[in-house]
Structure formats: structure tokens, C-alpha cells
Specification:
Blueprint lengths: L1 E2 L3 E12 L5 E21 L2 E15 L17 E10 L6 E10 L2 E2 L7 E2 L2 E12 L6 E9 L7 E6 L14 E5 L4 E9 L1
Length: 192
């Protein structure tokens, strides 16, 4: 098992938006600080795990609009986690089954933190088959069912609008993108 050391981080950057006065300018600072932990490896002969957890504390400070000061940044969850498990079928080593679990915590939608996008949890299932019997030197067949529970969620929450412009903090302009529903993907990879 390979375990990464805890990665502590702190990122501070100016934040700019359109204020009450109608002027787009730097209106304060956004500070993101937290810790990230990742691990991967075989936990049994046929089972491998890959995962990570991130905690992020975000703050807007020095904001010129009082109800934005000391609030959480738009679209930034406190918690995110992912765990991928792969099982190699012992009697049929060319076949690997997988499950991937994703968690994202709630995220602020508006600068004053009065509205939130709910947290969400999705699960993906997959299978991978490797053979030299079809095309070329190596052929990999993949099949995945993503978001098997058909969870409804906001995949992206961004300050701004669809034109790519930064948000208007006074108006609380935010763009949200709906996450993919249940879907099936299949692929063939051929190496010559």
C-alpha cells in the first residue's frame, strides 16, 4: 500500500467582481487552506484501491461588500473524496471489475452564502477485459455504467455567467452545470 504524506496547502489570491458601484475591480482576497491525503495499492492479491480525501477551508476577506466578507467562496466544497476499487478475477485474470465512489460536499451558490448546492455521492461500475486474441498486440475492451443510482446533482458551480464573465457579487450571478445522469460507455483500445 502506497500512502502519500498529508499535503497541507494555503493559496491566497485576489478576488475581483462587479461591486455595488458598477465597477469591476479587486474586491478582496480569497484564501484556500486545507489538507489532502491520498493512498493506493493492493490490499489483497486480487484487490487494488486508489483513493483520496481533501478538506478545504475557503474564506473571502477584505470584501468591499459587507455580506460577502468572511464567507465561503462560491463552488468550493469543504470535503471531497474518491475511492476506486479494482478486482482482478482470480480464475480469469484478463477481466478486471471496478467500482468508483465520488463524494462532493455542499457548495455556496451565492457570495453571501444564503444558497447552497447540495452535497452528492455517485457510484460508477465498470469492467475491463484485456486480450491479445483480437486485433494487434493488445486489445482492451471497456464497459462502464456511470452514476448507477441516477443521482441528480450540480457538477459545477461557478461565480459568473455562461459568457465567461466574472460574477456580479451585488446581484449574486452564478452559473451551475447539471451533472450527468446514469449513462453507459463502451470502448475498444487497440495497441499495434
Amino acid at each position: 500500500m502506497l500512502i502519500s504524506p498529508r499535503l497541507f496547502f494555503q493559496i491566497k489570491r485576489p478576488t475581483a467582481y462587479l461591486g455595488y458601484d458598477g465597477i469591476y475591480e479587486i474586491q478582496g482576497d480569497q484564501t484556500n487552506q486545507g489538507v489532502e491525503f491520498m493512498a493506493s495499492g493492493k490490499v489483497a492479491e486480487s484487490v487494488a484501491l486508489f483513493g483520496g480525501v481533501t478538506y478545504t477551508d475557503t474564506d473571502i476577506t477584505g470584501a468591499k461588500i459587507a455580506n460577502v466578507d468572511n464567507k465561503q467562496a462560491i463552488g468550493m466544497p469543504e470535503w471531497q473524496a474518491n475511492l476506486l476499487a479494482e478486482y482482478t478475477v482470480p480464475s480469469f485474470k484478463e477481466l478486471v471489475l471496478s467500482s468508483n465512489f465520488h463524494y462532493t460536499g455542499k457548495r455556496a451558490i451565492d457570495p453571501a452564502n444564503t444558497q447552497w448546492a447540495d452535497s452528492y455521492f455517485t457510484t460508477d461500475l465498470g469492467a475491463r477485459y484485456i486480450t491479445k486474441q483480437l486485433f494487434g498486440d493488445k486489445t482492451i475492451l471497456r464497459l462502464s455504467v456511470n452514476n448507477i443510482t441516477n443521482e441528480k446533482y450540480w457538477a459545477g458551480v461557478y461565480a459568473g455567467n455562461v459568457a465567461g464573465l466574472d460574477g456580479d457579487a451585488a446581484a449574486g450571478t452564478t452559473t451551475l452545470f447539471l451533472g450527468d445522469g446514469r449513462n453507459v460507455t463502451a470502448s475498444i483500445e487497440v495497441k499495434f
